[in-house]
Amino acid sequence: MNAGEVSLADLSLEELVRLDVSAVSRKAQKLSDTPAAITVLSATDIRRSGARSVPEALREVPGVIVAQIGSGRWAVGVRGAEGRFSNKLLVQIDGRSVYSPLFSGVFWEALDVMLADVERIEVIRGPGASLWGANAVNGVINIVTRKATATPGGLVSASVDDRGNPTLAVRQGISLGDAGAMRVYAKGSDLAPSRTRDGRSEPDYNRGWLAGFRMDGAGSGVDAWMLQGNTSRRTSGENINAFSLTGDGLLIPLDFVFESANLLGRYNWGLAGGEASLQAYMDHQLANVGTYGRGTVNTADVDFQHRLVPTGAHELMWGLGARMVQTEIIATSAVLNLSPPRRNFRVFSAFVQDEITLDPQAWKLTLGGRFEYSSMARFEPQPTARLMWTPNLKDSMWASWSRAARTLSIGESDASILFGPQQMPAGSPFPMVVVGSRPGQGWNRRAERVDTLELGYRRNLGNGSVEAVLFHNNYHRLVSEWYDPNGLILPNSSLPVEPFVAPLQYLQRGSEGSARSHGVEVAVDVPVTDALRLQASYTLMDTRVRRGADGSADVGGRALEEAAPQHWGTLRMSFNLGGGKEVDVAARHMGAVGAGDVPAYTAVDFRYAWRVSRYFDLYFVAQNLFDPLHLEYVSNFFPGQPVYQPRRAFIQGVWRF
Amino acid sequence: MICHLRRLLLLLALGLAGTPGMAAPPPGEYQIKAAYLINFARYVEWPPGRLPAGGPLRLCVLGRDPFGGGLEGLDGRQVQGREVRLRQVDNLEQAQECHLVFVSGSEERRMGLILRGLAGRGVLTVSDIEGFAEAGGGIGLVTEDDRVRFDINQASLVRDGLRASSQLLRLGRQVLMERVSR
C-alpha cells in the first residue's frame, strides 16, 4: 500500500472535495430511530423513478398501492384501502391538507406539484392520527418542498411524450437580500389520455396549469419563517358507465373543472428553551362537474406545535389546532341532492406526545394522543403507544398500538344520489329498477374507527437496509350500504328524472360495516456493486369482512375486501454508468383486484438519464415496455368506464441556470 | 509502538488495508465524512476562552453513530497542536461541553432543538442532515454527484465566535454569508 492510501484523515480538503464515494448510504440511518413504518423518498429517488406525478413516485413504497384509472387520475391506497378517493389516507403538502372533506379523499387529478422542487415525500403507513389528526387511518403522505433558499437559480423542464402531449415547468429563484429568498414557478401540462379496451379510442383528457411562489427567511439563524401560495386550474373529462331503461350500456361524458388557491405561512422560534412553530393557511377549492353541480370548500387552519427541551428521560411535544371549514354543494340535476347543501364546521384539536427513554440507546417508549372536537362529529380520542428496542447500531425493532378515526365526508353524510337504472335478475317483478343511495334513518354518523397493531424490524446494512413490518387492522363502523327494507318505491308522478319509469330502490347508508386486515410489508435496498443498486419491496395482505347476523351489514366491509390486490411487489435496478449516465429498470407485479374484475399484471419501466453538462439533464423514459395494454383498476366511486394503459414513452430536458 | 498500532487499527477501520498491488476500493461515504471532521477541526479556529491553546479538542457524535467505528482512529490524533478526544454524547448538556459536534441523522427530528441548545456556545455543529446549514447549523455535509461536499453557514460560525479559514470558505459548495448591512 502506498502512503497516499494510509489514512483518509490525512487528506487535505481539496483532495476530499474531489474524492468519489463508492456507495452512498441511504435514509435508513435516521429512520432506524423511528418506531413507525416510514419510507422517505428523496429527491433522487423521485428523479430516478421517472415519475412525473406524486402517485407515480409512490409506486415503489411497500404497502402502497397505486393504480392509474385515467388521464392524470389515480387510485392510491395504503394497506388495502385503495380507491379513487383513498378515504383512509391523509395527504399534505408542506403541512397543508389536500384531503377533501366533500368526498373524503384526494382529487389526484386536480393535484399538481412542481416535482423538481420537492425535497422529499414521507410515507407513513399505519395510523398517524395521534400526530396528524383525523383521516390518517391507514397512512399519511407528507410532500415537503425545498426551501426557497435552496433553489436560488432558474429551471426549465420540458417534456413531450410519444403522442405529443407536452409538459412545461419553469421556476426562477429570486434573492431577497437580507430577508431571504423567494422562488416563483409555473407549470402547464396536457396529460396523455388513456385507451379503451380495444386500444384505439381515447376516452379521457386532463389538462391545466399551476402557478405559485415560496419565500423563506434567510437561513442564518434558527428562527425561520416561510410563506407560500399557489393557484391552479385543471380540466378533465371521462366517461361514466350507465344503463338505459332498455338495458343497453350508455357512456355519459362528464367534464370536471377544478380550481384552487391557497396561502400558507409558518414561523419557527425558540420558546421556553424548546422549539415552537405556528402555521396558518387558507385554502379555496372548487370542483365543477359538468351540468351536474359544483362543490366548494373553503378552509382556514391554524396550528401550533411546541417541542420541549428533554428533561430527564422525557421528551415532550404538544400542540393545538383549529380549523374552520365551509362547504357548499350545489346540485343542478336531480341525480344528486344534498341536505343541507351548505355546512360550516369547526374542528379544535390538541395533541401531546412523550418520548420516554427507558434505557439509553436501547429502549424507548412513545405515548401520545390526539383529541379532536368537531362541530360535525363526536369526540374521538386517537391514542398511540409505541415501544422501540435498538439492541445495537444495526438492528431496531418496534411494536405499536394505535387508534384512528375517519370522519364522514359531506357526501356520505348528506347526499342522496341516483345511480340510475340497473338490470334486475331474471324472475324479478321488474326487469329494471332505478337504484339510489341515501343516508339511513336515525343514522348517528359517527366516524369510522380503526385499531392497528404493528410489529417492525429494520436492519441497517451500512449502504443498504432491510425492513419488515407486520400489521393488523381492526375496522369498526365502516360506512356501508344495504337495500332499504321497505322495498321498492313504485313509479308515480314525483319520480325525479325523466324518462325513468322504473321503480326506485334505495340503498340505505349507515355505519354498520366492520372488517379486519393483516399483512406483511418487506423492503430491501442493497448495493450489489459500486455501479448497481437493487431495491425491492413486497406486500402480502388479506382483508376479511366481519359478517353481520342479517347479512345486511357486510356491504361496506366487502367493498374494502375487494378494493385492493392481495399481494404486489416491485423490483428496481439502478445502474450508474459513469460519465453522468444512469439507467433504471423497474418492474412491478400487481395481483388481481376483485372489484371490477381487474386481472393481475406486470409492468416494466425503463429510464435513461444523461447529465449532459452542469446545466442540462436529458431523460428518456419508457413505461409498460412489454405490455401493449393493461387495466390497473376500475374507478369505484363514479362508475367510470374502465380505461387501459398503453405502452408510453417520453423525453424530458431539464435546464438549470 | 502505540502510534504504529493505532495506525494499523485505523487502516483496518477504514477498510483500506487491501492487498498490495490491488487497487483499493473507493472509500465509503462515512469514511470520507470522518476525514472531513478532522479537517474542519484543522481549519476552524475556536475563541481562546473556549479552547485554550494546547487543550484537548472534544469531538463528539450526538445520536446514533453512523461511522461504524470509522471515527475511532481519530481519537488521540494531533490537530494544530491539540489532542482530539472522541466522545459519544446522548443529550444537549453533554454536547454543550464539546467543541465539534457531529449531529447524527438519527436526531433529524430534534435538529431545531439541538441547534437552539448549542447556539452561542462556541460549538461547531456538523451534520449530513439535509438542509442543516440552512437551518442554522455550522457546516452541512452534502452528497452530490457521488462526491461529499459541504455548505458553510458563515453567519452561524460568526455568532459562535468561530473563524473558518479562507481555504475552508473557498472550498465550500455554498457559503451562507453573514447578514451584511447595506
Fold and architecture overview:
The complex is a heterodimer of chains A (657) and B (182). With 657 residues, chain A is mainly beta. Chain A has a single domain (21-187, 200-215, 236-279, 297-308, 315-656), classed as TonB-dependent receptor, beta-barrel domain (Maltoporin, Chain A, Beta Barrel). In chain A, 5% of the residues lie in helices and 58% in strands. In chain A, the strands form 4 sheets. Chain A has a 22-stranded antiparallel beta barrel. The two termini of chain A are 43 Å apart. Residues 1-6, 25-29 and 492-500 of chain A have low confidence and may be disordered. Chain B is α/β, with parallel strands linked by helices and 182 residues long. In chain B, the strands form 2 sheets. An 8-stranded mixed β-sheet of chain B has the order 3-4-2-5-6-7-8-10, sandwiched between helices. In chain B, strand 5, helix 4 and strand 6 (124-127) form a beta-alpha-beta unit. The longest helix of chain B is centred in the N-terminal third of the chain and has 15 residues, at 29-43. At the A-B interface, helix 1 of A face helix 1, helix 2, helix 4, strand 8 and helix 5 of B.
